[in-house]
Amino acid sequence: MAVFLFGDPVPPPGAWPLGLAKNPAAPAPIVFRLLDDERLAEPAANNPAHPVETMHGLLDRAGVAPGRSR
């Protein structure tokens, strides 16, 4: 199941193969996470991909800085 944390839930053509928009025309940065049901059931404090986390925290954990892909 896809959980979109930021941006439009419909990816532009050819975008988001690794979780970040790869389309130069897309608004940057757009981040989403694929989460399984077990991770969604975890409390926010134990779930690093919980929606209350900042975008910078998600990018740091993914090893990606805004403006570049991994």
Overview of this structure, please?
By secondary structure, the protein is α+β, with helices and mostly antiparallel strands. The chain has one domain. The chain is built from 2 helices and 2 strands, in the order E-E-H-H. 9% of the residues are buried.
pLDDT averaged over residues: 54
Strand-residue proportion? 5-15%
Low-confidence stretches: 29-38
Query: What form results from the Cα inertia axes?
Result: globular
Helix content: 10-25%
Q: How are helices and strands ordered from N to C?
A: EEHH
Brief description of this entry?
The protein is an alpha+beta fold. The protein is built from 2 helices and 2 strands.
Question: What layout of secondary structure does this protein have?
Answer:
Blueprint: E1 2-4, E2 32-34, H1 37-41, H2 55-62
Antiparallel strand pairs: 1-2
List keywords for this structure.
globular, two-stranded antiparallel ribbon, 19% helix, alpha+beta
